[in-house]
Amino acid sequence: YFEGLPVHTLRPLLRHPDLFVQRSATFIASELGRQASDLIDDVIPLLSSEARWVLSGCMDVLPVHAVGEQAEKFAHVARMLESVDKVIRIIAMRRVSNVDVSQLGAAAKFFQRPDHRHGTHERCLVTLSAPGGVTPAAIVAMIHDAYPLVRRYGAIGASRLIEELPALMMEVAQSEDPDLREFHKSMMEIRGP
Questions:
Q1: What's the confidence (pLDDT) of residue 193?
Q2: What is the model's pTM?
Q3: Using CA atoms, how far apart are residues 71 and 44, in angstroms rounded to an integer?
């Protein structure tokens, strides 16, 4: 593929019933970057897979491909914040924390559409993508919210401001929510000492 094989030949591999083939195809699509953006609609259905490594591969592909006119499709990664699988939720938190603010805003618009309405995702994404930036007080309130999804978005907001306000990540580390503590741990491992 890096030597000119047409990207559309990955399409049947993404649709293949074998999970190893699907994972390999998502890996190739993620490595090709925007060159494989035409495959985004073939990757999204794989987010219903029960295989973590297929889901993880899809969540590697979508942030790269869900840009510009396709940015709303990043909402499919945000939706994974509600996965029943803790590992997938943590991966989704990392992906959402690392995308451009325009992708967050586009995902908020996706959740405003009548066919995809979800008030909590919409509200949290609007907060994190606010033109003037999100306030530290809003992030702290989200981290301590009663609803787990809101807490996850609060942790994401804290990680997005880690350079300017590292104390916010201490709120995440000290949370009673095990997802938030695990997210903090994974982000600190990525950042290093």
A1: 58
A2: 0.92
A3: 13
